[in-house]
Amino acid sequence: MGDERRRAGGRAARVAARAAAPGEDDRAVHPGQSGGRYQPLTDSECRTVYDTALTLLEEYGIGGPIPEFIDVVVPAGGRLDDDRLHFPRALVEEAIAMAAKEFTWHGLDDDRSIQVGGDRVHFGTAGAAVSVWEHETRTHRPSDLQDVYDVARLVDTLEHVHFHVRTLVPRDMAGARDLDVNTAYALAMGTTKPIGTSFFQPEHVHEVVDMYDTILGRPGAFAERPFCVANNTFVVPPLRYAEDAVRSMVAQVDTGMPINLLSAGQAGATSPAALAGSLAQALAECLSVLTCVNLIKPGHPCVMGLWPFVSDLRTGAMTGGSGEEAVLNAAAAQVANWLDLPSGVAAGMADSKVPDNQAGHEKGLTVALAGHAGANLVYESAGMLASLLACSYEALVIDNDMLGAVNRTVRGIEVTPDKLSVETIGSVIHGDGHFLGSDQTLSIMQSEYIYPQVGDRLSPADWFDAGATSVDERARIVVREVLSKHFPSHISPEVDATVRERFEIRLPVGALTSSDRWSA
Known about the structure:
By secondary structure, the chain is an alpha/beta fold. The chain has a domain at about 95-410: TIM Barrel. Helix content is about 45%, strand content about 15%. The protein has 19 helices and 21 strands. Strands 1, 7, 10, 11, 12, 13, 15, 18 and 19 form a nine-stranded mixed sheet that branches. β18 (about 345), α12 and β19 form a beta-alpha-beta unit. α2 packs across α10 (about 275-295). It starts with a helix and ends in an 18-residue tail after the last helix.
């Protein structure tokens, strides 16, 4: 009897130890799990898409090139014809050879930095939503600068969101400069994870990098460990540069800011309805600026941001949660990886206007395929609704659970002698008859299994006894709890004061340490 009690006590202690928060090496999933097992295209099809993209660049070229692009492409063998810049195949292939194959996307906390490239998969946010889903009123309201900061604070606590590119446009900012500078400020103040944003004008890039150097303590510090990546939608598809965006791209190269080269044609509208044609066009557009960037500065860190969007051809409306979107973005990741270039795609762009079952299946489908295809960076993967027009605090928390589960499937199953469990099976057969209390079960309950934060796994009776809440209701509790208490302090008040002396910051200083919006 005493032996049984001692064994039971030992098991209880082990259960308690394993139930505690796991250490860094004990988690079931990590940022950068190896992906790439799902391949919607064959190698031959990847080659065909690539060859088609090179044909488009050589025969049709890209319209509206800026002088900085002309000045490096034409002397290298390209040609300018009727305001279209043509890229010979050999020139593009030389650019691919010299392009960065991986780079470090730093966090303000270097322990949260991520290595982009290879077969490593990371999940994060992005978007330019103009509204926020309000849980209590079940309506959408205009987004503001406070939301940009609050979303960053929330993401700072979400384990399975590995990087944070801004999700919302602060509609209370009067002009483009205020919008760019204050968005960049709110992101840096809200999280120590790797961040990203976009820019309207090149001078805003220089101003933001100056601000980031101030935060880091000296000129040039940002270029040494860049923690912000520019999302640069450089093209007006089909095959024409967006002038302000590519001018901003030159500034991003000049300041050492990594760039997500983002092509976002919409199949059936601004790119071919045929999915293969849409993919080839996006690849051509991205390869054109990859060539320009590497001629200006060889090896500058870039992401091949093929984001081919899909239309509902009955209406022309974007459909971010469709099966076509899922397979097309997975193929985009595969093609970029096939070229051994850092890949980034968009997934999780639910068409549903609310965080409901439709949003769940759309997000799960698109994110899982992107992750399994080996996308280095899966943007838009948390929080987005209404085909990118809205963001939801509750969806961010719910999607964090989803991302953990998807990442667990990317990790797969380790088949080792220990994991095949022959000895464990034998000890159970001759012992308790079940595995619930076995040493193996207790030893791997954190390292092999992942558990949701707000997902419900209770029996129906226990669920009713606990209040019969829905997942968005439980997520709302988490949101309120986090945002009423979590105010990151990685940037000191003294440094913040210096930033505010030099730059026109619109977020009230009091918002950095308290929030009436989220108080109970």
